[in-house]
From TrEMBL:
InterPro entries: Kinase-like_dom_sf (IPR011009), Prot_kinase_dom (IPR000719), Ser-Thr/Tyr_kinase_cat_dom (IPR001245), Ser/Thr_kinase_AS (IPR008271), U-box_ubiquitin_ligases (IPR051348). PANTHER family: OS02G0152300 PROTEIN, U-BOX DOMAIN-CONTAINING PROTEIN KINASE FAMILY PROTEIN. This is RING-type E3 ubiquitin transferase. It holds the Pfam family PK_Tyr_Ser-Thr. Keywords: Ubl conjugation pathway. It comes from Linum tenue. SUPFAM superfamilies: Protein kinase-like (PK-like). It catalyses: S-ubiquitinyl-[E2 ubiquitin-conjugating enzyme]-L-cysteine + [acceptor protein]-L-lysine = [E2 ubiquitin-conjugating enzyme]-L-cysteine + N(6)-ubiquitinyl-[acceptor protein]-L-lysine. Residues 1-188 form the Protein kinase domain. Its EC number is 2.3.2.27. The keyword Ubl conjugation does not apply. It comes from the Eukaryota.
Length: 226
């Protein structure tokens, strides 16, 4: 199935626990990093959304539907807005506003979509109007009120940290968004470790650490151990 099916309960299964959601977010970020660091040229997905995040029976995620993915022969600097793609592509609520306005395509265009997905993972809501709701909740200190109510044991501190990462990723201008590899992934890796610890505490054998199943995460883990 897909992440969309699980979040909106199209599959009729038990709601994803918070620690599985945290691991999925980390896996998506790792997948994006893999695309954006591809050689010889970076690859931008251009249509990242929950429906394109595929989950296996162990809830290990893979980024699917790369039909709109685009090789970037020359990475456009964050402060350049003159470059235009020949045709806009993607899904409206996940589409980078700067890309919509200027046609400029960059790896950070995917980061906007990633941020919206993270907000959905936290709230279980559809994307329309979600950004404004989360911004207001964070500003008013009421984030707990809009977290997915199907999960009773949200770790509020970590949820707030994840929400802030998501809000940083959906800044209107690409230049204001964080760097995926140096600013986003380190935080998500740490939150993933919190999730792993919770998995062990809950003794949920079905949710084995993701690097047992995901080759990209396995390589990342091995490289950190060297």
């Amino acid at each position: 199935g897909s992440l969309e099916d699980c979040l909106l309960n199209h599959s009729g299964k038990i709601p994803l626990p918070w620690f599985v959601r945290f691991k999925i977010v980390f896996e998506i970020a790792c997948g994006l990093s893999f695309l954006h660091n591809s050689k010889p040229e970076p690859i931008v997905h251009r249509d990242l959304k929950p429906g394109n995040i595929l989950l296996d029976r162990n809830y290990v995620s893979k980024i699917g539907d790369v039909g709109l993915a685009k090789l970037i022969t020359e990475v456009v600097p964050d402060n350049v807005t003159e470059y235009r793609d020949s045709m806009l592509a993607g899904t409206l609520f996940y589409m980078d506003p700067e890309y919509q306005r200027t046609g400029t395509i960059r790896p950070k265009s995917d980061l906007y979509a990633f941020g919206i997905i993270v907000l959905q993972v936290l709230t279980g809501c559809r994307p329309n109007g979600l950004l404004v709701r989360v911004e207001e909740a964070v500003r008013c200190g009421t984030l707990a009120n809009i977290l997915d109510p199907s999960i009773a044991d949200w770790p509020l501190g970590e949820a707030k940290e994840l929400a802030q990462i998501a809000l940083n990723c959906v800044k209107l201008r690409c230049r204001d968004r964080p760097d995926l590899d140096t600013e986003v992934l380190p935080v998500l890796r740490r939150l993933g470790e919190v999730a792993d610890a919770s998995m062990k505490t809950e003794r949920c054998s079905i949710y084995a650490p993701s690097y047992y199943f995901c080759p990209i995460l396995k390589v990342c883990k091995q490289s950190r151990q060297l």
